[in-house]
Amino acid sequence: MPAFKKIALILGNSRWLSPLVLLLLWELGSRSGLIPERTLAAPSAVLATLFDMIVSGELPSNLLVSTVRALIGLAIGVSAGIVLALVAGLSRSGEATVDPLMQIKRTIPTLALTPLFIVWFGIGETPKIALIAFASVFPIYLNLYSGIRGVDLRLIEGARSFGLSRSELIWNVILPGALPSLLVGLRYSLSVSILVLVVAEQINASAGLGYLINNARDFMRTDIIVVCLMVYAALGLGADWLVRVIERRALVWRPSIVGQ
Amino acid sequence: MDARLSFLAAKDAIPEAPVPTAPPLVKLEGFNRSFGANTIISGLDLEIADGEFVALLGRSGSGKTTLLRTLAGLDDPDGQSVQIPASRAVVFQDARLLPWKKVWRNVALGLRGPTGAVRIKAETALQEVGLGHRLEAWPLTLSGGEAQRVALARALVREPKLLLLDEPFAALDALTRLKMHDLVLALWVAHRPAVLMVTHDVDEAISLADRILVLDQGHIVAQERIHAARGERAEATRGLRQKLLAVLGGSAGKQGGVIPFPQGPLSHEAAI
Fold this sequence. Notes:
Number of helices of chain B: 9
Mean pLDDT of chain B: 79
Order of helices and strands of chain A: HHHHHHHHHHHH
Oligomer: heterodimer
Strand order of the largest sheet of chain B: 5-6-7-3-8-9
Strand content of chain A: under 5%
Low-confidence stretches of chain A: none
Low-confidence stretches of chain B: 1-12, 252-272
Number of strands of chain B: 9
Largest sheet of chain A: none
Structural class of chain B: alpha/beta
Radius of gyration of chain A: 24 Å
């Protein structure tokens, strides 16, 4: 009896039990016909489809298209965000010029610009990349800008007392001091870029995850839709992992990381 | 016997500071500094000779730090008569090491020249403060005393004519502080910069300095020169200690009976 109780306690406290039960119920519902396949495919069917799509190369090739889209948009957006934040963060007149524009930009929901971008850039790759770039500018800008402005004044003063020139001060003190904020911004930008990727890919795509989903919808292939949702989730996890790796390398001086 | 005194007794030969006859290294005449309506320093005259060790005593808010910032060149003198040497270095109360640079790179900060030569200079300076083994450490892993020693090395590697110490040992425990006193004296003897040490610790001032200034409400209200050798001060300066404490404490209400001392070096025969 105590052994049984112990097992019950472990099961009651485990965090993976409820998702597992949900999956099980879902599978049972599908098998018994309670959940029709056109509503939602069974987990086993989804796994089988995932396997098939990997083997046939359909998933890797479309995933590559989507990833490249996100990365190009992100590269443009992050670069622009860094440049704007440096201009606004390092000079008063730069701040007066750039910051109001960025605050105006912030009030416009990026996805609301989709129709305008289609009018401007057509329905090819350009509007998709432009949307991702446009959306990922702001988190980088805001975090790096406030990071630059938030660098410990005592450190700046200490460095100044040793006769560092302005450019040396920026390179040795201000930029390293703002780096943790930049990485927070990067983390936000990555997740925003995946969010926008999902919507942007619905614009008449001929390849990519969005194209797969759109196609699957037309054929009511809910299994493929679920596979694509899983891939989007994996992309988000991957992005998070990437930033954590960068952080671990770039911020080795932090005691929490030093101590590990 | 006091730990610091026993240390000093071992090497008694610390030479006395030269009596200022040559043109002074630092010269302030009628210096004023105010922020808005707040006058921090008014009509202050100060001279520091080459190689002289001066302690600046004062309570919080007496203008010590403002004066030090001016001497460090951190505040613009606004066209006032301020003469400071070009080569100077500051050690702050908080070591102000850049946490993202390894210890030796912090010491080498702002040094010009090929990396190899700069690194050797930084290494030498760190060995001098007893931290030759922590070259590659991250600053946030150092203890308070170690960080302050790195800050000293960082200041001395520039071979400054004027070394400014802004309450550098205030945050350290008593034993570490005494060790730091010894270290500072040893470094001062080896390099002979002029030193201005801001402190609120009378004993620290007495055991280290050639000359002690007391600053209150922007004025120098007392000035003492100590002639006794550093190892023999405990007895010789008992009267001075009482006097300085009285000046520091008594001026709280402004009419606490403080007689402002005339400017200029006032000789105090400590062995009374």
